[in-house]
Amino acid sequence: MTLRLSTVILPVDRWHEGGRAAWQRAEELGFHTGYTYDHLTWRSFRDRTWFGALPTLTAAATATERLRLGTLVTSPNFRHPVTLAKELMSLDDISGGRVTLGIGAGGNGFDATALGQEAWTPKERADRFGEFVPLLDRLLTEESVTQRGTFYSADESRNIPGCVQRPRLPFAVAATGPRGLRLAARHGQAWVTTGDPKLYETGTPEQSLEAVRGQVEKLGKACADTGRDVADLDKILLTGFTPERNTVLGSLDAFVDFAGRHQELGFTEIVVHWPIPDSDFAADPAVFEKIATEALSQLG
């Protein structure tokens, strides 16, 4: 399958001071999808400018024509399926059906306690995610939904006329554990991974590749258990969190080598971070644009 190249544009610039220009440039460079992080704040950007994901994507939808748009990823940490479904349906309409929802269970970052709650345990996050995704699926495919859950409920929630994309906009489910992989198999049109976080700082590229290979195999088993062909799911790798994080965008050759090794594992989409000076995502803009425009022709 032909590999696609996408980018994550973090919402760190005012719209009229670089924000709009970045999304438009991403379209000009030929990226398949422009994603953004759906956080209230994030890591080293906590004390820096940071705007909301869905308003940013709405603005991007009006500033572009072909570029797909998406979150990478939304989580239950501060979202509710009923309100999220309404906003996603609206964004899908405004964009003309160009939206992908990246969705995951969330973590222990700043979002986990921003609403005044205690951070959930891994089991609590998995439990909530297990309710969140199926309910959101129903909300985006049915005109009226009533459901009583342990964590999330809906009472005659209506989403008319529904998504432009049918039966709904695609879900890209981020998961590495068994419960999350089952959700990806049942509800996802794509699966997302960042690799193995345990190898982020001390692992080798070879160890990372084997770990990702293992994740792909587990995804295949989850699909088989649900009677689904794993080939039906797109497989998305978000770069920047593997041992090669500092070299992937160092040169065209380095990126092609990295992407090619993961393409052999079955990945259909590689996502790179839009360069941000003075951050973990700093990169030479000229090299970045060379990768955007030339890498795919070398990968086939």
Helix content: 25-40%
Instruction: Indicate the multimeric state.
Output: single chain
Largest sheet: 8 strands, parallel, barrel
- The portion of residues forming beta strands comes to 15-25%
Alpha-beta classification: alpha/beta
Give a description of the structure.
This protein is α/β, with parallel strands linked by helices. Helix content is 38%, strand content 16%. It has 8 helices and 10 strands. It has helices spanning 19-29, 53-63, 81-95, 122-141, 178-187, 205-225, 252-263, 285-299; strands at 4-8, 33-36, 68-74, 99-103, 144-147, 154-158, 171-174, 190-193, 234-238, 269-273. An 8-stranded parallel beta barrel has the order 1-2-3-4-7-8-9-10, surrounded by 6 helices. The protein has a two-stranded antiparallel sheet with strand order 5-6. Helix 2 (53-63) runs parallel beside helix 3 (81-95), helix 3 (81-95) packs across helix 4 and helix 5 (178-187) packs across helix 6 (205-225). The termini are close together. The mean pLDDT is 97.
Features:
single chain; 300 residues; alpha/beta; eight-stranded parallel beta barrel; two-stranded antiparallel ribbon; 10 strands
In short:
With 300 residues, the chain is an alpha/beta fold. 38% of the residues lie in helices and 16% in strands. The strands form two sheets. An eight-stranded parallel barrel has the order 1-2-3-4-7-8-9-10, surrounded by six helices. The chain has a two-stranded antiparallel ribbon with strand order 5-6.
